[in-house]
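tool_call: predict_structure(chain=1)
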Amino acid sequence: MTFGPPPSPFTQSRQVADARARRKTFYASASILVAVVVLGLIAWSLWPSQGRSEPPVASQGAKSTAPDDIRETVEKLPNSTSAGHVEGAVMEKGLAPGKILTAPGMWATDKILVKGNASTLVAVEIADGSDAWKKQLDGDICAISPDVTNDGRTVVAFKDPEGDHPCNQVLMFRVATGEKVWQAEIPVTQGVFKEPTTMTMTRGVVVTSWSRGSVALDMENGKTLWKRQQTEKCRDGGFSGGRALLLRQDCYEKKERQDHFLVHKVDPRTGKFEWTYKVAPGVKFAYFLSSDPAVVAVEAGDFAVTNLLSLDDRGSLRANIRMEGDHYNVECNPDRVDRCDGAVVSKSQVFVRSGEASEELGNTTNWVVAFDLKSGRTGAKFDAGSDQQLLPLRMSGDRLLALKSGTDTFAPNSLVSLDPGTGKQSTYFYFGIPSDVRGDGSEIVVERGRIFFGHQEFRGSGKKELPDVQWLAFAISAAR
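tool_result:
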């Protein structure tokens, strides 16, 4: 069967959106990193490394204690603001000039930093950057889940070295040791447009999807729990995991010659639908900001997020939050339906990054606004401050963690906590980054009192006999 008459309006619009999303992701990442790098030369000299001391900002523990639940650590607020320093970097020293390296995936514990590097998983000790473990895969990594379970497991997919190199080998491993828990093969077949394989996790289950189907695997042993295939009218566009499991179905009506999207809550063990929400016709794309509570970002009109839809526990619309043109800045990528920058969801609110506001001398600022998921009304507002911008990262209990980066050569970078109950901003630490850090596609993780930066794609530079060192990933820790 085919997914609608090729080419459909959906597939044509997708090609345009793909290009747009990649440009947006590049420029968004670049803007953050340029600001950070400029500060590096100043902050690096002011805040030197303090040796092997453990960070004073530690996690208070996971929200759920089930070992196969997805990790939701809570970062302890510091007693006082301190300086930060780089430690535990994963480096690539032999990338030939002009050669492209893809390095998807970054995970961390309190002691170990792990980075994907082509067909290898590389782990270092955060305290001193020494090698912890390395795992060579049979093919290049082609899909990852950024999530980690409470007992320290995560998954990647890599290409089968034989045949047409489909992304069909799934590996679950332990982040701390690199130990293989299991490896399974999924029945990937590619359609005309060859959308990438995607992965997510929810309690006890790993879910993968690709252009023509999806499969759920038991987290304990990798055995197939259920699988789905595209139909004449619909295909699985991708899943969102975490506390629950949501599926976006991409459908095409021949009679109406129009695309539409269905959102399903899925029982992770059986694959059965618990409820369905039909996104209004005319929406070009739909993405997941959260699975529980269910929040959907949609692009209605231009290829930009125009509305956030809050759904209740029966799949009915609770609130339609309008993004007011360019007033708010939520950016999503069609290749991953569950990953958007600029918005973070709590139990009762969604925190949204504003657009940039210009200041004197070309510097910019922004703010973060909370919207109530039940009423859609605005709540707390957090201003970045002069010559600074806020990027919301994730929830830490009832507080929002955010990266505050400077837009000039003086304002520092910092990891901050935003309290919607009081409107107070608390700073964990200030930091700078070495000036030779470069790479496209930022990954940012906050875990165990540290902020981690990683990159997904690199181009070799320098000379053939002396290539430049590439920073694949590194930690910033607070100094005592």
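agent: The chain has one helix and 41 strands. Proceeding to next step.
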